[in-house]
């Protein structure tokens, strides 16, 4: 099998958005949709975990193929991939926990180790984990691999704290929000490295979104607010579509030139 060609010489613009407030809003909404949509498809619509996993994996791979083929950042395409990978990441965790009976602490640690391995391989290969330099296919593949396992790990960790540890969805969401606040404080007040700050916040938004999704969608008897997976998924998807439409029109989150590797 021939090695992946490093298209570093091609004139590609950065393939991911600038990190703005819009980025974090859509990211948290997408992680919530990943949790509720997976439950909606597998349970509410009766597709089951296996069929849902195959369907969503197929849609994700198709969207990812178009994303990899694109030569610049396209908001609608990029965020479609993020929404789909959030669902797939949730399903990866659910298949191991609900399908195979693997304990949440085990899956949480396992996904954490895999994610660490992706970061190590990425750093050794590209000498940077900066999202301002996703301009080659190899870097983009590392980027999406990291994102997939942040979603899978975040699902397991969120369920571990909210359900297995008995904190409840609301308390778990507050804990993860507080941790994100700590990362922001360390970055802006104490000048913690920007790349490290970004990935810590990115990882933590997943269990925050998962806990928030369960809090909104689960019935009151299960510790939720009883809004249901249909209403929660449609509401959050509508907001995502609206914000992405604005970004597509305004280009406010497009990185037009190469930024510093640091």
TrEMBL record:
Say yes or no: keyword Transmembrane helix present: yes
Keyword Aminoacyl-tRNA synthetase attributed = no
**Which UniProt keyword terms apply here?**
Membrane, Transmembrane, Transmembrane helix
The transmembrane segments are: 45-66, 73-93, 99-121, 141-161, 167-188, 195-213, 225-247
Tell me the protein's name. Membrane protein
* Pfam families given in the database record: DUF347
- Please report the organism this UniProt entry assigns to the protein: Bosea vaviloviae
């Amino acid at each position: 099998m021939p090695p992946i060609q490093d298209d570093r010489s091609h004139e590609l613009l950065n393939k991911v958005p600038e990190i703005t407030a819009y980025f974090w809003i859509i990211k948290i909404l997408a992680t919530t949709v990943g949790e509720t949509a997976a439950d909606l498809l597998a349970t509410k619509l009766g597709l089951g975990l296996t069929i849902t996993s195959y369907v969503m994996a197929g849609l994700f791979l198709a969207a990812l193929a178009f994303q990899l083929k694109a030569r610049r950042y396209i908001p609608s395409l990029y965020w479609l991939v993020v929404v789909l990978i959030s669902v797939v990441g949730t399903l990866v965790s659910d298949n191991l926990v609900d399908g195979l009976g693997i304990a949440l602490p085990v899956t949480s640690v396992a996904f954490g180790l895999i994610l660490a391995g992706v970061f190590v391989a990425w750093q050794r290969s590209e000498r940077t984990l900066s999202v301002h330099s996703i301009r080659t296919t190899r870097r983009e593949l590392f980027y999406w691999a990291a994102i997939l396992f942040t979603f899978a790990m975040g699902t397991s960790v969120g369920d571990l704290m909210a359900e297995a540890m008995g904190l409840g969805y609301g308390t778990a969401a507050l804990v993860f929000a507080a941790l994100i606040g700590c990362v922001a404080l360390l970055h802006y007040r104490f000048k913690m490295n920007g790349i490290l700050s970004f990935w810590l916040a990115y990882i933590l938004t997943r269990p925050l979104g998962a806990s928030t999704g369960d809090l909104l969608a689960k019935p009151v008897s299960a510790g939720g607010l009883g809004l249901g997976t249909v209403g929660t998924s449609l509401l959050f998807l509508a907001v995502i579509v609206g914000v992405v439409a604005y970004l597509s029109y305004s280009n406010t989150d497009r990185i037009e030139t190469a930024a510093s590797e640091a």
